[in-house]
Structures are given as structure tokens and as C-alpha cells.
Design goal:
The chain is an alpha/beta fold. The protein has 2 domains: 5-115 and 190-251, Rossmann fold (3-Layer(aba) Sandwich); 119-182, no CATH class. It is 46% helix and 15% strand. The protein has helices at 31-34, 59-74, 86-97, 119-136, 138-149, 163-182, 184-188, 210-221, 235-238, 240-251; strands spanning 5-9, 13-17, 39-43, 79-84, 102-108, 198-204, 227-229. A 7-stranded mixed sheet has the order 1-3-2-4-5-6-7, with helices on both faces. Helix 4 (119-136) runs antiparallel to helix 5 (138-149). The model has no long low-confidence stretch (mean pLDDT 92).
Length: 252
């Protein structure tokens, strides 16, 4: 199995783990802001976009194993790690299972339902998201997801976008069914274990949807405070230069 990997820049390795239905292109605006300071390793997770061949047995463990393998191949066996959304959940699993490969983890808004007081409502809401998706398609499922999480959802105006951007959005849209069936309910239900490495929990400054509340809950469980980053849940897309500066700050 070959993963699609994009490596750029120079310096200490920084692995970027995309979340949700995203792929390496999710970090297309962030990576160039970092590559003057770091060797940036971004990739499509197994089962998404150009990596194909999804794992269905022990899927989360395989996801973590893939991240560890990329650190060996492109980071000389040790790297800093940034993960956002469900990618942050993978990053936490990496810190737990492979502490010798990780210098520091920045977990940006990991959507862990165990970290919030309305866990039961969220779990029921995610069940409904999948039911809506199966009944009415990905667009309807994403709109329901936006309601349940407080993140909202707006269909991108593909006709007005440059072809390269439209291509990325089409890839991500193609990932949504697999993400809804195999990840939305499964990864958000994970209870992270102890990590023997430094974990920074990052939260967007803009608002308080479910992933931000979960991040603050995780930080409290770790006995620290969440570090505020520019923008919201997609701050690395919305404000890449400021986001990169904050990320480099917490990594050093």
C-alpha cells in the first residue's frame, strides 16, 4: 500500500495530518508558510483521495501506524506532529503508541465527544447525520453535520473557482461517504490514553462549536490550558500566515 505524500521545505520534520474528508491539499496554504523553517510532510490518509485502499479492520490503529511509518521515512524517525480535527485524534494516538517518534504534538480541535458534557446528544446527532446521508446523500448529510456540531455548512461555488481548487473540492466531496460511514462516529468516540510526549491542545479563536469545546475539555483533562490559534476550525486555511506563525511559536 502506497500513500500519497508531499514533502517540501527543509529543517526539522513536521508531519501534518488532515482531518475529516480532507487530504494533503487541505494544507496547501499552510505548508508554504512553514517550509522555510521545517521539512513539511503532508499526505492523504489511507482511504482518502489519492491513497486509496481503505483499511476497515483496526482502522484507527492502521491510521496511527501509517503516520509512524511516514515519520520513519521522511523525518529520520522523529518529528513534530500537527493534526487537525480527526487528524488531531490520530496525532494523539501517535503520541500514545509511538512516543519515541514524536517531539511534540499540536492537536487542533480534536472532536472527542467524551470531552464534553453533551456527549450523548452528540452521539445521537452523529447517528442522525449518517442516517440522513444514507437517505438523502452527502450534501444533506453535511448540512446535518453542520447543525449537530455548530460548524455550519455551505456548498462551495465550484463554477466560480479556479480548476485546481475545484479539483481539490471534488476530491474532498468524493471522500465524504467513506468519512461518514467509517470515521465520523468511530473516531469521535475514542477515549485518548496517556501520552509520554508534550501535547499542545489548540483551539480556534473565532467561536465555540463542538470541536472547540472538546479541545478545551481535553486541555483541562491534561491539566493545561488550550492554546488559542487564529481563525476557527479551519484557521490554517482561513489565515495561513498567522496560523503558521503561531504553530512555529508553540513548536519552539
Amino acid at each position: 500500500m502506497t500513500l500519497h505524500v508531499e514533502v517540501s521545505g527543509s529543517g526539522p520534520a513536521l508531519l501534518l495530518i488532515p482531518g475529516g474528508a480532507g487530504d494533503a491539499a487541505t494544507f496547501g496554504r499552510l505548508g508554504p508558510e512553514l517550509c522555510g523553517e521545517r521539512t513539511i510532510v503532508a499526505y492523504d490518509r489511507r482511504g482518502f483521495s489519492r491513497s486509496g485502499a481503505p483499511a476497515r479492520e483496526r482502522r484507527f490503529d492502521v491510521d496511527v501506524d501509517d503516520a509512524a511509518r511516514l515519520i520513519d521515512l521522511h523525518g529520520g524517525g522523529r518529528a513534530d506532529v500537527f493534526g487537525s480535527s480527526s487528524g488531531a485524534i490520530v496525532a494523539l494516538g501517535l503520541a500514545e503508541r509511538f512516543p519515541g517518534k514524536v517531539r511534540r504534538v499540536v492537536a487542533h480541535e480534536p472532536p472527542l465527544t467524551v470531552m464534553v458534557g453533551d456527549e450523548a446528544d452528540l452521539r445521537a446527532g452523529f447517528d442522525d447525520v449518517v442516517a440522513v446521508f444514507r437517505r438523502s446523500g452527502a450534501g444533506a448529510g453535511m448540512r446535518r453535520f453542520g447543525e449537530v456540531t455548530g460548524l455550519g455548512y455551505r456548498e462551495p461555488p465550484r463554477a466560480a473557482l479556479p480548476p485546481a481548487v475545484a479539483e481539490v473540492l471534488d476530491r474532498i466531496a468524493g471522500n465524504v461517504p467513506f468519512w461518514m460511514e467509517e470515521e465520523l462516529r468511530q473516531y469521535t468516540a475514542i477515549v485518548p490514553g496517556p501520552a509520554a510526549v508534550d501535547v499542545v491542545v489548540a483551539v480556534g479563536e473565532a467561536w465555540e462549536p463542538f470541536p472547540a469545546r472538546a479541545a478545551r475539555g481535553l486541555a483541562a483533562r491534561l491539566g493545561t490550558a488550550a492554546v488559542v490559534f487564529p481563525g476557527g476550525h479551519d484557521g490554517y486555511i482561513e489565515r495561513p500566515a498567522e496560523f503558521a506563525a503561531r504553530l512555529l511559536e508553540v513548536l519552539t
